[in-house]
């Protein structure tokens, strides 16, 4: 089973991918991570990528394809794969077909965690954590029981991530839409796209994804 998991930042994609890894033994292939690993391991393709990046240029599709091919070759054939952050263009989607075909694999599902942008903004902008123990809170959904005091450790200091603001969230959403827009129609034409409500409870999202994969 090979899938592409799509979703904007904050939609819970990381959590869902991790659950698929834990519960189904799938392997998450994130192009960013693979690229860094290949550069670090100084594989032939990693060295190529390193040279390109050192020259301040963007890594070509050819290099990315090579890295994905190498990563697949290093896996047991029965290991299912979650593609994360790839493909992002029509050309990459077609490359992925070639890469998979060459290895007797195919793409079974494209799952998109669908979010309501305004609700996502509310979810992200309202969150804060205890500065001491890291316990998570939310302005609307989970206030400390005693105002200004952490339920867990009693600390009175809290922090917010500077990028948890409305402008950043909306910019990230726009970037995400721009990146997925070119590839979704390709997979829609094949009838393998499923949209899952990413605003639902995490367990509900997991159960829905499981249903799709088992169908
Ligand atoms: Zn605390």
Tell me briefly what this model is:
The protein is of the alpha/beta class.
What does this entry look like structurally?
The chain has 215 residues and is of the alpha/beta class. The protein has nine helices and eight strands. It has helices spanning 13-24, 31-41, 44-54, 61-73, 90-102, 117-125, 166-180, 184-189, 202-214; strands at residues 2-6, 27-30, 81-84, 109-114, 127-130, 136-138, 158-159, 193-197. The chain has a five-stranded parallel β-sheet. Strands 6-5-7 form a three-stranded antiparallel β-sheet. Strand 5 and strand 6 form a beta hairpin. Helix 2 (31-41) packs across helix 3 and helix 4 runs parallel beside helix 5. The model has no long low-confidence stretch (mean pLDDT 92). The structure holds zinc ion. The site of zinc ion has 8 residues, from loops.
List keywords for this structure.
binds zinc ion, 215 residues, three-stranded antiparallel sheet, 15% strand, alpha/beta, five-stranded parallel sheet
Shape: globular
| Separation, N- and C-terminal Cα atoms | 12 Å
Summing up helix and strand content along with how strands pair, one would put the structural category as alpha/beta
| Ligands, deduplicated | zinc ion
Count of DSSP strands: 8
Portion of residues within helices: 40-55%
String of helices and strands? EHEHHHEHEHEEEHHEH
Q: Give the strand order, joined by hyphens, for the main sheet.
A: 2-3-1-4-8
List low-pLDDT spans: none
Radius of gyration (CA) equals: 20 Å
Question: Would you tell me the overall average pLDDT?
Answer: 92
């Amino acid at each position: 089973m090979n899938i592409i998991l799509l979703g904007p930042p904050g939609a819970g994609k990381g959590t869902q991918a991790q659950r698929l890894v834990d519960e189904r033994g799938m392997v998450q292939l994130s192009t960013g991570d693979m690229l860094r690993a290949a550069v670090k391991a100084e594989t032939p393709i990693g060295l190529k990528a390193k040279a390109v990046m050192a020259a301040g240029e963007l890594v070509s599709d050819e290099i990315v394809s090579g890295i994905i091919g190498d990563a697949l070759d290093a896996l047991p054939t029965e290991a299912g794969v979650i593609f994360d952050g790839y493909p992002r263009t029509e050309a990459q989607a077609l490359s992925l077909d070639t890469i998979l075909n060459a290895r007797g694999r195919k793409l079974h599902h494209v799952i998109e965690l669908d979010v309501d942008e305004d609700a996502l903004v509310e979810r992200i902008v309202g969150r804060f954590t205890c500065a001491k123990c890291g316990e998570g809170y939310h302005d609307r959904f989970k206030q400390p029981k005693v105002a200004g005091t952490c339920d867990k450790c009693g600390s009175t200091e809290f922090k917010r991530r500077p990028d948890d603001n409305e402008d950043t969230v909306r910019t990230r959403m726009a970037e995400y839409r721009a990146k997925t827009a070119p590839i979704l129609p390709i997979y829609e034409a094949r009838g393998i796209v499923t949209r899952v409500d990413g605003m639902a409870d995490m367990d509900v999202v997991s159960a829905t994804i499981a249903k799709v994969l088992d169908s």
